[in-house]
């Protein structure tokens, strides 16, 4: 009976060692799967980033012409307005200078309306 009990204990110890090996292998498998998943996720993220950058570049290229044409239109409008302002300035500058000179040169001295006359 002692031999059989010793053999049963040895069988249990062997089974326990085998179970520990299986658990260790499962842990290693899980760690490897996590590493593989991270690597795959990194690749997918990089591919997605490249795809979005490509979409953005194509969007930017397609709308760059719109921006340039808008800039040209604004430049033309600005030039037209500048010419209008210059024409108005050239037309009115002589009148304005004359009015300013008349105001400065032709002074008519008079007493202020709030000044009371002194009675003597």
UniProtKB/TrEMBL annotation:
Entries under NCBIfam families matching the protein: V_ATP_synt_G
* This protein's GO CC annotations: vacuolar proton-transporting V-type ATPase, V1 domain
Classification via Pfam families: V-ATPase_G
Annotated Gene Ontology MF terms?
Answer: ATP hydrolysis activity; proton-transporting ATPase activity, rotational mechanism
- The coiled-coil regions, if any, are 12-58
The answer to whether keyword Coiled coil applies is: yes
The answer to keyword Coiled coil applying to this record is: yes
Keywords carried by this UniProt record: Coiled coil, Hydrogen ion transport, Ion transport, Transport
UniProt protein name: V-type proton ATPase subunit G
**Job of this protein:** Subunit of the V1 complex of vacuolar(H+)-ATPase (V-ATPase), a multisubunit enzyme composed of a peripheral complex (V1) that hydrolyzes ATP and a membrane integral complex (V0) that translocates protons. V-ATPase is responsible for acidifying and maintaining the pH of intracellular compartments and in some cell types, is targeted to the plasma membrane, where it is responsible for acidifying the extracellular environment.
InterPro entries, per this entry?
A: V-ATPase_G (IPR005124)
Q: How does it assemble?
A: V-ATPase is a heteromultimeric enzyme made up of two complexes: the ATP-hydrolytic V1 complex and the proton translocation V0 complex.
Family, per entry: Belongs to the V-ATPase G subunit family.
């Amino acid at each position: 009976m002692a031999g059989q009990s010793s053999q049963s204990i040895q069988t249990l110890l062997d089974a326990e060692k085998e179970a520990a090996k299986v658990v260790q292998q499962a842990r290693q498998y899980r760690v490897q799967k996590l590493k593989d998943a991270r690597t795959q996720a990194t690749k997918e993220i990089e591919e997605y980033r490249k795809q979005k950058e490509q979409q953005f570049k194509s969007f930017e290229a397609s709308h760059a012409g719109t921006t340039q044409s808008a800039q040209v239109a604004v430049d033309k409008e600005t030039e037209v307005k500048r010419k209008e302002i210059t024409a108005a300035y050239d037309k009115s500058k002589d009148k304005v200078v004359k009015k300013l000179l008349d105001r400065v040169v032709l002074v008519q001295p008079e007493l202020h309306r709030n000044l009371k006359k002194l009675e003597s």
